[in-house]
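Re-run with default settings, no changes from the original entry. Doing this only to confirm the output is reproducible before filing.
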Amino acid sequence: MKREAEEDWGGGTMAATSKAAEAFVKNFEDVHRLLELHTKEGGSAKGPRHGLEVLNKAAIVLITAFWEAYCEDIAAEGLQHLLDYSESADTFPKLLKKQLAEEIKRAPNDLEVWSLAGNGWKTYLSQRMKELADNRNRKLNTPKADQLDKLFKTALGIDKISDQWSWQGSSVARSKKNLNAFVELRGSIAHRGKSSKSVTRKQVTDYIDFVRRLADINDEAVNQHVNRQTGKPLFDQ
């Protein structure tokens, strides 16, 4: 049965399905706390809140960090699923297999290749999962559309996952543009502090709803991909 752990995100609800999504929802308790403090100090009437913009800026930084962590986690979770349930290395992405092949070529032991015999490839890959994840995460830099396409292509073999980011009211192009704008706003806040662009509470709640939708889509994309490869879904629909 599908895990039904629903959370009010301020812009809708998300059924936490993958473990990565469950952690994502849990992390947002900190963002909700910032919004609660904003309401407590500034009330709920319309209009600007003097001295409280720092809470909005902090929320933008946190949301981006949680979004990046979610993407890293769901990619790693999907790859672990492939490792657990694949009967052949053929199910793994070409880029990953190429990376491992280059690693074996550089091994000082000429007999290293024999470690892949039989099911040895599973043991070999299992021992390198954390190292592979660390390498992917270092290359991610910022969780924008193009970088995330590379992440999911390298880790799982999913071509341009961002091409699935559409729903009523938002095309793929618009979703990519909006994500990049939010991430760039985080960068402005982190590097410029008080001189960064003004940030409103509405931008925070819009960002929450936006990444919630993207996470829903990414979860389903990974679930369908690993199911096609192994015959077993990451989670039940």
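The first helix runs from residue 19 to 27. The chain has nine helices and two strands.
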